[in-house]
Design goal:
The chain has 230 residues and is an alpha/beta fold. 47% of the residues lie in helices and 13% in strands. The protein has two domains: 32 residues; 194 residues, 3-Layer(aba) Sandwich (Beta-carbonic Anhydrase, Chain A). A five-stranded mixed sheet has the order 2-1-3-4-5, with helices on both faces. Helix 4 links the parallel strand 1 and strand 2. The longest helix has 17 residues. It is globular, with a radius of gyration of 21 Å.
Length: 230
């Protein structure tokens, strides 16, 4: 291949990347909007943004925002997510897809049935405490396998293997409140986690100052819709 052809391809590549908002050195192109320019500033604005994205997803009208080279360049040096989504590890409930979000939009913390231990609590605290994230969304979901397994173990008086038994222990209060109704147990567990987080010593002052809201949601596997619980 001739040097002339290689040179021409290099020029075209550089032009294309620059037009997409990326320079060859990985920096942002001149005039590129900063993430903070679009970030919801209040808890209610953050929830409205999540709700808007979920409506798109449920309607099969996702726009897949912030999933390109330009966005990667925007957030490479700094992140300003506007929500922490605490969700189950279930493969059918990936928060970025459910809320039609992309790079740098949300922090996701996932565990079986949204159960919380000190390490997970620290991960949740990071968003509001270090990045001024104004919203925490605890997202339960329809037909949660962890809840179903825990309910069966509690009903039969059996134990799950390994660390899975810790999930059973954490879900016992919701099981007792739900009185055997699995779907109600999922919703109750979600609101219980919200209540636990609201009493967190690091988060409570931010809630009192109205810089943070913690809400619960329920995701329908059948419809793709998130319903706000708390």
């Amino acid at each position: 291949m001739s040097k002339k052809i290689v040179g021409r391809r290099t020029v075209l590549l550089a032009a294309g990347l620059a037009a997409g908002g990326v320079l060859l050195d990985g920096g942002a192109a001149h005039g590129l909007a900063r993430p903070s320019a679009r970030r919801p500033a209040t808890p209610d604005q953050a929830w409205a943004k999540l709700r808007e994205g979920n409506r798109r997803w449920a309607a099969d009208a996702s726009i897949h925002p912030h999933r390109n080279l330009r966005r990667r360049a925007e957030v490479a040096q700094k992140q300003e997510p506007y929500a922490v989504v605490v969700s189950c590890i279930d493969s059918r409930v990936p928060p970025e897809i459910v809320f039609d979000m992309g790079l740098g939009d949300i922090l996701t913390v996932r565990s079986a049935a949204q159960t919380i231990d000190p390490l997970i609590a620290g991960a949740i605290e990071y968003g509001p405490a270090e990045l001024d994230t104004p919203l925490i969304m605890v997202l339960g979901h329809q037909r949660c396998g962890a809840v179903t397994a825990a309910a069966h173990a509690l009903k039969e008086g059996t134990k799950l293997p390994g660390h899975l038994q810790r999930i059973v222990t954490d879900l016992r209060p919701a099981y007792e409140q739900a009185r055997g109704d699995a779907d109600r147990m999922i919703r109750i567990n979600t609101t219980n986690v919200v209540a636990e987080l609201k009493s967190d010593k690091l988060l409570a002052p931010r809630i009192a100052d109205r810089n943070l809201k913690i809400v619960g949601g329920y995701y329908s596997l059948d419809t793709g819709k998130v319903t706000r619980l708390v």
